[in-house]
Specification:
The structure is a homodimer of 295-residue chains. By secondary structure, the first copy, chain A, is of the alpha/beta class. Chain A is 45% helix and 17% strand.
Chain lengths: 295, 295
């Protein structure tokens, strides 16, 4: 089944909540952070990464009844170095086993065979001498369009071959996103040019659900643009960050949906995964109830 | 010493060649690829990553007399999954021990604390409970500007704190780079707006050598733009990819330099690291002689 149809199925079953997995060590529950770490410096970061994976898997279990989509943020795993990459693999594997649709939020972008290397890592795995070794095995990947056509196309080719998807950064949720995205290029802002390219790339991939495998990242913090883009790109999935901790409200994100209730997955990271104070012994119940509320 | 001054010192001592470390397995010398790999699938990718690190360290040793700057391409390590990250760490550590100035070519870009996580991974390391654990320990990192001001600034803050540098993608070397970079925004192409922002960010970081810590990536495949940008950004280091295998010539890259011979490092990846056919038993001599020619 195509990526877009699998995503539609997940949203129909469990709603449009995408749980962002952003494991900042200092925000993890005390009970996890205070599990004993071995002493030698080299082994300590490995232990931190293992505890981080434990926390992330626990979050997957807590949110599974309420969300069908999860988005691990690669930066927080990379911050834990090579051991963080062991954790990233473990979390993605567990999410897959549990039936989540996964979005690896790595915002990759490079050219030609270098882009293919990132795409193979994200999707099918590493191909060596006719054998394929699984790497991240994600269902989709966020990508950055700045490098242009031949930087995006290798991701599209790899996604197509593996029945996976991409989400292209169009209008990001941060306050300073306008520096380049809002520049007036031949009469319309840059992000609208990127949106038009996304619509083009998406067109040949539209599945049974009426949406395609080439999505767009559009922040909840720009509700007017979100509505405009929804009208302009009726067949494009939106990944909508910025809901909750970044200030986007439920009314703000409504504009991202189509009338059939599909078309958007709304990410909440800090809101769902860290509704508790790190010292709170009752963090599991709070995470669960936060999901019910969002869902 | 500031990043820019360390880079100037390396270029004065050994010239402007930057050796790109892009370890594509199928291009590695037969003698390395054919070293026995253990049989179980899980262990094979680990062995591939270890052999890859061995090749990269051998390249460092071969090019050390001729080049002071190396640029590992993160995508080819990531393609080898978590084990590739062990290899990336080993190669960066060895490069540092050998005195190279390192550019981690990862083209990262994200917002706020997520950008800080990437920056800390690249530069100072992971900070936990008052302790800092080294991660990549690179001297500089390539970054993507599309997300805007508050996506770039965390990298600048982290670079400043650690006396490291960044290279912001301005005009990339690929044929399709113009899709967005060439759009006419208020009378000038997008990449010139990015270049102007780079000049701003670079200004407070200018070191004794007259150049700063916030560089720009400008492809050798656009010699006219390279000359224009050199004139417009006299204090900005350029990382110039696209020389050699991608078609840029020695005459093309000349425009990237200042009259004092500083201002650009010229990357060659396939040209230097893979001048040989994979089956060639004499690959070490060929790599060495290619460096003499480029240097």
């Amino acid at each position: 089944m195509s990526f877009s149809d699998r995503l539609a199925e997940a949203v129909r079953r469990k709603g449009p909540l995408c749980v962002g997995i952003d494991p900042r060590w200092e925000s993890l529950p005390k009970s996890i952070r205070e599990a004993p770490l071995p002493h030698p410096t080299t082994a300590r970061l490995q232990a931190v990464a293992e505890h981080t994976a434990t926390f992330c898997v626990k979050v997957l279990e807590l949110v599974a009844p309420f969300a069908g989509v999860v988005k691990p943020q690669s930066a927080f795993f990379e911050l834990l170095g090579k051991w963080g990459m062991h954790a990233q693999e473990a979390v993605l594997n567990r999410a897959k086993e549990m039936g989540f649709v996964t979005i690896l939020d790595a915002k990759r972008g490079d050219i030609a065979s270098t882009a293919t290397a990132y795409a193979d890592a994200a999707f099918e795995g590493c191909k060596i001498d006719g054998e394929t070794f699984p790497v991240w095995g994600a269902d989709s990947l966020t990508i950055n369009p700045y490098l242009g056509r031949d930087a995006v196309e290798p991701f599209l080719v790899a996604a197509k071959a593996a029945e996976r998807g991409v989400f292209v950064l169009v209008r990001t949720s941060n306050a300073g996103s306008g520096l380049f995205q809002d520049l007036n290029c031949d009469g319309k802002p840059l992000y609208r040019h990127v949106a038009a390219a996304v619509a083009e790339w998406n067109k040949p991939t539209i599945g049974a659900c009426g949406l395609g495998d080439v999505g767009a990242v559009v922040g909840a913090t720009h509700p007017r643009e979100l509505a405009e883009l929804r009208a302009e790109l009726p067949n494009v999935w939106f990944l909508v960050p910025g809901y909750g901790a970044q200030g986007g409200t439920a009314a703000d994100v409504r504009a991202g949906f189509r009338s059939d209730g599909l078309g958007a997955v709304v990410n909440s990271s800090r809101g769902v995964t860290f509704p508790f104070h790190p010292d709170d012994p009752d963090w599991e119940a709070k995470t669960r109830s936060e999901c019910v509320y969002r869902g």
